[in-house]
Specification:
single chain; about 475 residues; alpha/beta; six-stranded mixed sheet
Length: about 475
C-alpha cells in the first residue's frame, strides 16, 4: 500500500518471507515513513534486523539491531533515517527519514532473520522537489520578459499567457540547468512587442507533483523619451564608477595578497634551525592530507603530490612517515590507534624516542582531529592524558589542527582544546587528491600554520622531564 502527501509519505508492507519490491515517492523537505513489519513470534533475540541503502550497486548498512541493541552507535556517519528499538520486539522495524533530500534517493532493503528463514523487502525511493515561486522581470524596452525559478525536480515546464488567456509559449525560449544540489533551475525568456496594455503571466509546472505556480505583471506599451535617457545615464554613471572602484580594490587586494604569501614562504625558506613538526592523530583524521597540504602551499612551482600516503590503507597507511618541507624543516606523524584508547604498548617507545630526538631537533607537536567526529567523555580523557605526556617531553602543550572545518563542529571543538592548554588551534580545509584547486586563502592558512610551528620551535625552551605514573 502507498500513501502520498506533501507532508508525510507512509508505506506499509507486512513481510511474510521472500522479498517484495515497492516504489515510493517523497517530496524534498518532507518526512518519509517506511514501515517494515514482520511476525514478532518468529523473531529470536539473537537474530539481526537491518536496513541497507544502495546507490548504483553500492550498498551501505544504515541501521543494524541485534536483540534491540543498536550495532551502529559508534558510526553516526553511516546512519540514514531512524528506527525505534522499542518497537522491534513487536515486529516493527519502521524507518523514519526526516526532511528527505535528493541524496536520500535509491534502493532501501529491510531484512530480518526469522525462525522460518530470512525476510527482505526492497523499496525504490524517488525524491521530487517543489520549484520556488517564479520571478518575473521586464526589460527596459518592454519587448522581452524573463521568468526564472529554482530548485525543482524533475525539470519544470514553463508556459506563458497574455490577455484573455492567449498562449504566448511558442514565442519563448526555455533553458534548464542542473545545480550542485542535484535540482533544476529554469529560465524562460519571452520576446513580445507590446502594443497595448495587458497582463502577461508565466506559470511553472511540476507535472509529477501536479503543482503549478504563477506570477503575472501588468505591462503597457513602451516609448523611450529624452527623460528616460537622462534617467538611464544618471543611473549608469554612478554604477560604472562603483564597479571600477570595486575592480580596483580587488586588483589591489590580489597583488597585496600575493606579496603577503611570498613573504610567508620566504620566512619558511630562511628557517635555518633543524625543526621536525610532529603531527599526532588517529587514522582518517587527515594527518597525511595536512602534510600534503603544507608542502603544496609552500612549493608553488610543483603540482599536487600525495607525498604522505593519504587515502592508503594498512599496512601502507600514511607512508612514508617523514616528508621534508625544506632543507631544515621536516613534517612527520605519529599515528595513534583507531580504537577509543589512543596509547597502546608503543606509548613508552614513542615518548623515549621523542626525548632522544629533542636533543638534536626542535620538535613542535600538533594534535590533529577531524571536525566530523564529536568527542566522547572517554576520548576527552584520553586526549587530556596525551597532552600531559607531550608536555612532559617538550615542556609545553601541543598545538591543535582541526581538519574538515566546513563539514563538522569546529566551533564546539575549539574551546575544548584551548581548555587543555593548546596555545593555538588551527582549522583547515585540506587539499586532497580529489580536490586540490589552489586558492590564496587556503595557501595562507597552511603557511601561517607552518610559521607558527617554526616560532614555537624557536621560542619554546625544551624541558626534559622524566615521565612518572
Amino acid at each position: 500500500m502507498k500513501l502520498f502527501s506533501i507532508g508525510l509519505i507512509l508505506l506499509v508492507i507486512q513481510c511474510t518471507g521472500g522479498s517484495l519490491v515497492k516504489k515510493i515517492t517523497g517530496v524534498r523537505g518532507s518526512d518519509v515513513w517506511i514501515e517494515c513489519m514482520f511476525d514478532a513470534a518468529k523473531m529470536s533475540q539473537d537474530k539481526p534486523v537491518w536496513w541497507l541503502h544502495c546507490e548504483n550497486s553500492d550498498c551501505t548498512k544504515i541501521q543494524h539491531f541485534i536483540g534491540g541493541v543498536d550495532q551502529l552507535q559508534d558510526r553516526a556517519a553511516s546512519r540514514r533515517g531512524r528506527v525505534y528499538p522499542d518497537k522491534l520486539r513487536e515486529g516493527n522495524a519502521s524507518l523514519f527519514i526526516e526532511n528527505v533530500q535528493m541524496s536520500d534517493e535509491g534502493h532501501y532493503e529491510c531484512s530480518a532473520i526469522l525462525t522460518d528463514g530470512p525476510c527482505t523487502t526492497i523499496y525504490v525511493l524517488t525524491v521530487l522537489a517543489s520549484s520556488e515561486p517564479p520571478q518575473l522581470t521586464e526589460a527596459l524596452d518592454t519587448r522581452s520578459f524573463t521568468c526564472s525559478s529554482r530548485n525543482g525536480f524533475p525539470p519544470a515546464l514553463v508556459t506563458w499567457t497574455g490577455g484573455s488567456g492567449m498562449n504566448y509559449t511558442p514565442d519563448s525560449v526555455t533553458q534548464h540547468t542542473l545545480n550542485p544540489e542535484g535540482l533544476y533551475d529554469v529560465v524562460s525568456k519571452l520576446t513580445r512587442n507590446v502594443t497595448e496594455e495587458e497582463t502577461i503571466c508565466c506559470t511553472v509546472w511540476n507535472q509529477p507533483l501536479q503543482e503549478h505556480k504563477t506570477n503575472c505583471m501588468r505591462v503597457t506599451p513602451g516609448q523611450e523619451t529624452d527623460d528616460q535617457h537622462s534617467i538611464l545615464i544618471g543611473i549608469l554613471i554612478p554604477v560604472t564608477l562603483f564597479i571600477l572602484a570595486c575592480v580596483g580594490f580587488m586588483i589591489y587586494r590580489y597583488f597585496k595578497g600575493r606579496q603577503n604569501l611570498a613573504t610567508k614562504r620566504e620566512r619558511i625558506s630562511n628557517c635555518s634551525n633543524d625543526t621536525v613538526i610532529v603531527l599526532i592523530g588517529k587514522p582518517e583524521h587527515g594527518v597525511p592530507s595536512l602534510i600534503n597540504s603544507c608542502v603544496y602551499a609552500y612549493k608553488t612551482d610543483e603540482p599536487f603530490k600525495n607525498r604522505a600516503g593519504a587515502m592508503r590503507h594498512p599496512p601502507h597507511y600514511a607512508k612514508p612517515e617523514e616528508v621534508p618541507l625544506t632543507e631544515h624543516i621536516t613534517i612527520t606523524r605519529a599515528l595513534l590507534q583507531p580504537e577509543d584508547r589512543f596509547w597502546t604498548s608503543e606509548r613508552d617507545s614513542y615518548l623515549d624516542n621523542w626525548r632522544r630526538e629533542a636533543q638534536s631537533h626542535r620538535r613542535p607537536f600538533v594534535f590533529v582531529h577531524s571536525c566530523t567526529e564529536m568527542l566522547t567523555t572517554v576520548a576527552k580523557d584520553e586526549i587530556k592524558e596525551l597532552f600531559e605526556d607531550i608536555k612532559s617531553v617538550t615542556g609545553s602543550y601541543p598545538f591543535t589542527g582541526l581538519t574538515k572545518k566546513n563539514q563538522g563542529h569546529a566551533e564546539e571543538l575549539v574551546p575544548f582544546f584551548h581548555s587543555l592548554g593548546s596555545k593555538r588551534v588551527f582549522s583547515f580545509d585540506n587539499y586532497t587528491i580529489q580536490e586540490h584547486k589552489r586558492r590564496a586563502k587556503r595557501d595562507e592558512e597552511f603557511l601561517d600554520f607552518v610559521n607558527a610551528c617554526i616560532d614555537e620551535a624557536v621560542d619554546t625552551e625544551l624541558e626534559m622531564v622524566p615521565l612518572t605514573r
